[in-house]
Amino acid sequence: MRAVPKFSLLLFLFCGLLSNSLNAQEATPENLMATFIYNFTNYIEWEKPGPDSIFRIAIFGKDKLSKPLHYIASIKKVDQKTIQVIEAENQSELDQSDIIYVSGDHTEMIALFNQQFPEHKSLIISASDDGLEKGAMINFINQKGKIGFEINQTAIKNHGLKVSSRLLKIAVKVI
User: Fold this and answer.
1) DSSP H helical segments within 6-124, as ranges?
2) Which domains does the chain have, with CATH numbers?
3) N vs C: which end of the chain shows fewer Cβ within 10 Å?
4) Given its phi and psi angles, is residue 61 left (phi above 0), alpha (psi -120 to 50 degrees) or beta?
């Protein structure tokens, strides 16, 4: 029996949940990354869930992820919480976000976010060549046309978050 390639398993695990909902949409990198972001919520545990009924995903900087994330927010929930997608243009709009996605042209801000928002236990995600080095906890990468991700396990733990070993196993790189 042949071993299932890691990418095929990864794509199956993460796209399976939304496959019926996204049938009409194209499998663009943005749609795949938005699906990954939603599915990360199943494999990351926030130490103290917020008391309100909203799960906030902030996008800092202009990015094509906005439309697919808004679509996912319209059909899915995170632990019975409504998903709110915020297109942040300044740091004050990131307050109380559960996930902060930092667009490629704003990755220099990641270190500042790590310092300013540790009490909010925000998961910081980027998509740049040096995202982990700049302090992102999860960073999307494109390897030969395939979307994957790498994880900074130490940064995640330092923010009081817990990452599932199942997510670590399918990451392209874990530091």
Assistant:
1) 6-15, 29-40, 66-75, 110-116
2) 6-174 (3.40.50.2300)
3) N
4) left
Looking at the chain, the number of H-run helices and the number of E-run strands are: 6, 10
- Report how far residue 55's alpha carbon sits from residue 63's, in angstroms, rounded to the nearest whole number: 20
Q: What H or E segment, with its residue span, contains residue 24? A: none
Mind listing the pLDDT tens digit of every residue in the chain (175 residues)? Answer: 334 455 444 444 445 444 444 444 578 999 999 999 999 999 999 876 656 789 999 999 888 899 999 999 999 999 999 999 999 887 777 878 899 999 877 777 887 777 776 566 889 999 998 899 989 999 999 988 899 999 999 999 988 899 999 999 999 999 9
Any long-range contacts for 21-28 (C-beta under 8 Å, 24+ apart)? 21/72, 21/75, 21/76, 22/71, 25/68, 25/71, 28/64, 28/68
- Cβ(131)–Cβ(107) below 8 Å: yes
Residue type, 117: F
Q: What CA–CA distance (Å, rounded) separates 20 from 23?
A: 5
Confirm if 83 and 55 have CB atoms less than 8 A apart: yes
> Cβ distance 98 to 55 under 8 Å?
yes
